[in-house]
Amino acid sequence: MGGHGVKLGVLLPTRGLIMAHSAPTNADLILKMAHMAEESGLDSVWVGDSLTAKPRLEPLTTLAAVAARTQRVRLGTAVLLAALRHPVLLAQMMGTLDLISGGRTVLAVGAGGAFNREQKQEWEVAGVKASQRGRRLEEVVEIMKRLGTEHTVSFQGRHFQMEEVSLEPRPVQPGGVPVLFACHLRAQREVQFQRAARLGDGYISISETPQDFAEVGRRVKKYTEEYGRDLRRMERVFYMTVNLNRDLKKAQEEADQYLKMYYGINMWQDLWGPWGPPERLVESIQQYAEAGATTVIVRFASFDPMGQFDTFLKEVVPRVQ
Predict the structure, then answer these.
(1) What is the number of alpha carbons within 13 Å of residue 278 lying toward its C-beta?
(2) Mean pLDDT of all residues in the chain?
(3) What is the DSSP code (8-state) at residue 166?
(4) What average pLDDT does range 155-169 have in this prediction?
(5) Which pLDDT does position 1 carry in this prediction?
(6) Over the stretch 20-32, which tens digit does the pLDDT of each residue have?
(7) Three-state SS at 220
(8) Bridge partners of 106?
(9) Percent of the chain scored above 90 by pLDDT?
(10) What is the DSSP letter of 92?
(11) Which of 19, 150, 194, 279 is deepest in the core (most CB within 10 A)?
């Protein structure tokens, strides 16, 4: 669903549930929003990831519950810190989730950050050196994808070694679960574009302007051509953080308060948004579609995600179609 051929998805508030004034006693909000997304014809629902730095519901467990409550909507991570996991365990989990969902999963992954004390501690408690997370991510994805498509896998890498490993269940999707890699111009690391072109089935960005998102596509395309791959066959995702309110000042104030609580600081403040009337979001989605996005994910920077979602479905989705 979407204008310019763009598909629309929504981020389920698995962190927002933890940020509520009182500790959650159930996950009904998450399951209700997923059901509404499916009933409204949205393409996908997504969940974020963190262990200790930004506490939230565990993503793959959550998606298994969503899979059991839905029939059609795609189930994605945006993004999974795959380097925190062992590749064989991750492969087993993804094979199981893809089986439960009937082949509806998509795995967006990123190297993650180590910019503050909380993020650094997150890698430490998982027993992973933060300085090695990029290369470890590549090995995790390569092993996971091979275990999902090959009968036996041998691998000799810097972080993982194995001989003739077989694993079931494998994903039901032909070619395994599609993997998208996080790519951000602000990271200023050329390796991320190479990684997406070599190992990915697409890429996902979170902090780019439409012009920058188009540049991400050009960077990835350069390397897909070197690897003999076709960018047109890749999913190109933009993850957008919004607050819908006719009162622009109130929208900005709530979004700022929410994101400061979410991250501890309001990082990338100049690139979040749009805030304000639904018309601004409609225009923004169209701009990213024109810049090359095949899917746009919307996250609500609000303490009332259900109210925001209802406005999105009533006042944004029909105008984007």
Answers:
(1) 14
(2) 94
(3) -
(4) 97
(5) 56
(6) 888 999 999 999 9
(7) helix
(8) 76
(9) 88
(10) H
(11) 194
